[in-house]
Amino acid sequence: MDLDIYFEPAEFQFGDNPGQTAYNRLGDIINAYTHNDGFPILNDAQIALLGVKEDRMALENRGCGEAPDSVRQHLYSLYSHWNHLKIIDLGNIKQGHTVDDTYFAVKEVVSSLLKAGVLPIIIGGSQDITYANYLSYENIGRVINIATVDPLFDLGHDESELNSRSYLSRIILHQPNFLFNYTNIGYQTYFVNQDAIQLMKNLFFDFNRLGNVRLQPEEAEPMVRNADILSFDVSAVRYSDAPGNFYAGPNGFKGEEACRICRYAGLSDKLSSIGFYELNPKYDDRGQTAQLVAQMIWYFLDGFMNRQGDYPNKERINFIRFRVHLEEFDEEMIFLKSKNTGRWWIEVPIKIKANERYGLQHLIPCSYNDYQTALRQELPDRWWKMQQKLM
């Protein structure tokens, strides 16, 4: 497929900053589609940047469609610390005649990149573009997981509407359905009604309060490691660190916490696409939010270049196996710990024949805290939710 039909060149200023040497910055190694340079080819590329200047469904946050080039201006000035990073910038997807036209373009582009083994980094635009990103996985032949960093669940109030605050409902209701699990990281309880929380519980989805994630930030790592798609709403970051959003508020993640989550995403061997949404330059004092998103992408790249490929294979020779028997439940739990990275997984047996497509057991990322929970003769929440899903 000729992807260039969907794109227009990126337009931004990339020059020398005072006090910086113009050597080995990301702008020096990214093969970008600009007015001066032609459309890049995918050959040997590991990562592709693409902007989506779509904000017609951005509730109260119109203007976020201008974010992609604003982020590029800061991203290109950051230094590359990796010798073999092969990254291209495809430019900005042309805004379609209708929003559905834009969704179709995003779906086709991301699907083509996934088939080529290239990881897309989407710079939006409004967060409803996550729905188009989800559709790009429709023909891969397996179910997938989505994680969002978001103060809300974005379920909306009307099942028929699709916008930046209702796209998750459209994903859940889409047929054929290939969403296995959804994880929210950092929701703020006072923004979420009880019905939405009950729906998350009924679907055995994972949702994690901002305070809990900030208290134990390392627990966000297995949440992200289990995802195929990560969608990051910048309104999840507090106003003092990221003012560039209509909904920016006094509470949220700190900038360094957002960067840490993005590095976790980069380290995940499973994660195959990521998107950053809802940055609105017209609210962005001194470009602070654009700088933060650029640094978040930098941390994602750093994680990506340090991937260890430690997902447990059949032999599992590089793993330590721990068995814990829970007497009250008559269950034996098997935990695996990577000798290379120290990361943990837990086996969830599949007991129903109809679910054989998941294999003999399903491995889910977990943490040392889950192992300690089992040692206390308690069921880890991750294990229980997965067991319910597979029944």
What is the structure about, briefly put?
It is built from twelve helices and 14 strands. The protein has helices at 26-29, 67-75, 99-115, 129-135, 167-173, 194-202, 210-215, 220-225, 255-267, 288-304, 368-375, 381-390; strands at residues 7-8, 31-32, 47-52, 87-93, 119-124, 144-149, 179-187, 206-209, 229-233, 273-277, 319-326, 331-338, 344-349, 361-366. α5 (167-173) links the parallel β6 and β7 (179-187).
Descriptive overview:
- The two termini are 40 Å apart.
- Helix 6 (194-202) links the parallel strand 7 (179-187) and strand 8.
- By secondary structure, the protein is an alpha/beta fold.
- The strands form 2 sheets. Strands 1, 2, 3, 4, 5, 6, 7, 8, 9 and 10 form a 10-stranded mixed sheet that branches. Strands 11-12-13-14 form a 4-stranded antiparallel sheet.
- It has 2 domains: 3-304, Arginase, Chain A (3-Layer(aba) Sandwich); 319-390, no CATH class.
- Helix 4 packs parallel to helix 5 (167-173).
- It is built from 12 helices and 14 strands.
- The chain is globular, with a radius of gyration of 21 Å.
